[in-house]
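ARCHIVE CARD
CATEGORY: sequence design from structure
SOURCE FIELD: tokenized fold
FIELD CONTENT:
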């Protein structure tokens, strides 16, 4: 039998982080704790994003209480997925993706010994680094260029930058200067519009961005406009990735219909927003069937959520290279953003995440 509980925790940013939803100075997250009779403990993180996650609503605390009450009825620790599937149906967890992610990963942790080591890979053994991109926060033109130069100086060869916050002419000037300083054969550029373009202007803007040799641009228009987005994916000279568009599609049929109609070139998968590892894996399988590339991104989780995503990514990327410059590059670098992050054995080393195999997690900050 298990005993379930949860604890809220506020993460504080080292400096205000500019996003399409304003500047973030703090971040509320929730930790789910599952303890077996022998003291083995599994941890999961529920980290909804304001204005984006379906979970970010006043009823979340009550839903956490309901989940723990259901678990505390006397759930045996036996089969790995049965409790998740049972409670998903009973409590409607498909409509609470961040909470479902917390339950799925806490149960996985518990079932595998409560060591916060969910997969056995060269990365989790401390033998391989997981390469990540350098994320550029919204800023002034001068600030953007300074951030890019700093990331490249640190060794990053993949840069992700937001667009749509400044006027478009200014952003094109910034991108032109980035390319003057850092040619495409040296630095890969990925852009994220967060739906900032209108359907009427999007194609012209994508055509204007094409000379800068962009790997892909995420979510050019707001979600829900499938016909317009499908036309863009068919005609754009810049490959298009879906991100926010994937939120809320909980059945296999819905996901398949979306990909079949829109036909994007890439998917950016954030398990916290999609309901966990199993739904994200469903997206991957469907994407591979249609020849669509995919990338895993974190979503401002603490080190605990980041560790889960990094371990899972290393599992998916079996045979990850030891040199961070040689593997596929995902978006998993958020650990240094917070002043009071959960202490654990995951850290950034150069341009890749690494795990210390004998390192311990310190849950004293969130043990209630």
């Amino acid at each position: 039998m298990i005993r379930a509980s949860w604890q809220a925790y506020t993460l504080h940013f080292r400096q205000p982080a500019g996003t399409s939803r304003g500047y973030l100075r703090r971040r509320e997250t929730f930790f789910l704790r599952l303890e077996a009779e022998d003291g083995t403990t599994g941890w999961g993180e529920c980290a909804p994003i304001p204005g984006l996650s379906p979970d970010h609503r006043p009823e979340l605390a009550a839903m956490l209480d309901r989940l723990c009450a259901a678990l505390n009825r006397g759930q045996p620790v036996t089969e790995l997925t049965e409790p998740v599937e049972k409670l998903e149906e009973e409590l409607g967890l498909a409509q609470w993706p961040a909470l479902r992610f917390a339950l799925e990963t806490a149960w996985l942790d518990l079932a595998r010994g409560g060591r916060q080591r969910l997969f056995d890979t060269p990365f989790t053994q401390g033998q391989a680094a997981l390469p990540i991109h350098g994320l550029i926060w919204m800023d002034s033109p001068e600030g953007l260029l300074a951030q890019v130069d700093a990331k490249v100086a640190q060794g990053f060869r993949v840069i992700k930058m937001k667009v749509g916050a400044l006027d478009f002419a200014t952003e094109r000037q910034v991108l032109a200067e980035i390319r003057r300083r850092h040619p495409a054969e040296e630095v890969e550029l990925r852009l994220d519009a967060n739906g900032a373009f209108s359907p009427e202007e999007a194609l012209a803007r994508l055509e204007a961005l094409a000379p800068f040799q962009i790997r892909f641009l995420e979510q050019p228009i707001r979600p829900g406009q499938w016909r317009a987005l499908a036309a863009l994916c068919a005609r754009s000279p810049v490959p298009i990735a879906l991100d926010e568009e994937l939120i809320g599609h909980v059945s296999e049929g819905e996901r398949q219909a979306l990909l079949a109609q829109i036909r994007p070139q890439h998917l950016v998968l954030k398990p916290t927003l999609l309901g966990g590892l199993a739904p994200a894996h469903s997206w991957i399988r469907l994407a591979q069937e249609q020849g669509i590339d995919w990338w895993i991104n974190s979503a401002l989780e603490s080190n605990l959520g980041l560790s889960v995503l990094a371990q899972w990514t290393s599992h998916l990327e079996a045979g990850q290279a030891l040199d961070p410059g040689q593997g596929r590059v995902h978006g998993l670098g958020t650990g240094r953003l917070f002043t009071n992050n959960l202490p654990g054995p995951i850290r950034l080393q150069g341009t890749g995440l690494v795990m210390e195999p004998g390192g311990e997690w310190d849950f004293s900050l969130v043990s209630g």
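CARD ANNOTATION: The two ends are 21 Å apart (CA to CA). Residues 319-325 have pLDDT under 50 and may be disordered.
SHELF: design records, drawer C
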